[in-house]
Amino acid sequence: MSGGVDSAVAAARAAEAGHDVTGVHLALSANPQSFRTGARGCCTVEDSRDARRAADVIGIPFYVWDLADRFRQDVVEDFVAEYAAGRTPNPCLRCNEKIKFAALLDKALALGFDAVCTGHYARILTRADGSRELHRSADMAKDQSYVLGVLDERQLAHAMFPLGDTDTTKADIRAEAERRGLAVAAKPDSHDICFIADGDTQGFLAKRLGQAEGAIVDETGARVGTHTGAYGFTIGQRKGLRIGTPAPDGKPRYVLDISPVDNTVTVGPAQALDVTELTAIRPRWCGAEPAGPATYTAQTRAHGDDVPVTAELRDGELRVTFTAPVRGIAPGQAVVLYDGTRVVGSATIAGTDRTGRPVTV
């Protein structure tokens, strides 16, 4: 229970369905006062109090579990290391993989619980043989299956998502919370990165990685600007480049490449971001591993479009080919494969091929 409306309603629905429910709030910071205040995050002292009040209204036991050390190691340090390597990580996806459905689930099972129930918008369907499938939410506008694509068959066997099974909007969820007497009914959604208190990702990284002046160059290698750390950029970025020299055609320029080795950022036109293929590592499957090449749809960003692809495993790496070029794919992000609404699996993007020019970081 994060302290938000989704997890509160999920807990209420699970209890109403007859399950023996215990509310758990995760303490993910050794100093929670340093996390953002108010309702923007999900890791504050205020959030834990909101979660406790919701549990009291529902009538279930409530505990705070300290997973700060695991969160720092598996999520925060991974986040910093990925940016230092020139990649763009997704900390929410890593938290689901390493914390909520690993550290938390392992502790829950050891204590005799059967499942971890969350307020994610996704569905779990059970096949005739008893195995389980992860599917997109009935409400596509709130679908969160992308950040759950790292869950394997064992984790899915011990997961519950009560909000994903019904075609209800966020407004419906808030109305339900109000009917149930939950004070979080009107609480704003959390956003940004929960462990960056002021929302300044670049400032957060600068404190941990230091500042070092580097060059911003165009596709010819000509220097067009400077920066104080390549980690402050991501592939496809347009704003905040601080380039003093306009492009010859007068059109905006975008980040094409990030080289942490020589601290160089390369910029160029939008069409240079078109990706035709990608290679992804550390694949995780929501069920059996696919056999041979097959046709799927793929999502490469948390709020990205679903696009048709062909994909296959080669020597433990996932090779994905797009039927039409896709723009602005960043190494470090996840590619999640779908068969209709079913989540096939997820892998971390390691390199891309842009109109015949491979890019790997």
Automatic annotation (TrEMBL):
Residues annotated as catalytic: C95 (nucleophile), C194 (cysteine persulfide intermediate)
Localisation: Cytoplasm
Membrane-spanning segments: none
Site description Interaction with tRNA, residues in chain: H120, Q333
tRNA processing in keyword set: yes
Primary location group: cytoplasm
GO MF entries: tRNA-uridine 2-sulfurtransferase activity
Residue intervals of the tRNA-specific 2-thiouridylase MnmA-like central domain: 203-268
Keywords on record: ATP-binding, Cytoplasm, Disulfide bond, Nucleotide-binding, RNA-binding, Transferase, tRNA processing, tRNA-binding
Catalytic activity: S-sulfanyl-L-cysteinyl-[protein] + uridine(34) in tRNA + AH2 + ATP = 2-thiouridine(34) in tRNA + L-cysteinyl-[protein] + A + AMP + diphosphate + H(+)
Gene3D superfamilies: Adenine nucleotide alpha hydrolases-like domains, HUPs, Translation factors
Domain of life: Bacteria
Keyword Calcium annotated: no
Its EC number(s): 2.8.1.13
Residue numbers spanned by region Interaction with tRNA: 142-144
Annotated tRNA-specific 2-thiouridylase MnmA-like C-terminal domain residues: 276-349
Top EC class, one word: transferase
Annotated residues for binding of ATP: L26, G119
Its biological purpose: Catalyzes the 2-thiolation of uridine at the wobble position (U34) of tRNA, leading to the formation of s(2)U34.
NCBIfam families: PRK00143.1 (NF001138), trmU (TIGR00420)
Record family assignment: Belongs to the MnmA/TRMU family.
PANTHER family: MITOCHONDRIAL TRNA-SPECIFIC 2-THIOURIDYLASE 1, TRNA 5-METHYLAMINOMETHYL-2-THIOURIDYLATE -METHYLTRANSFERASE
Protein name, entry field: tRNA-specific 2-thiouridylase MnmA
Organism from which the protein derives: Actinacidiphila acididurans
Name of the gene: mnmA
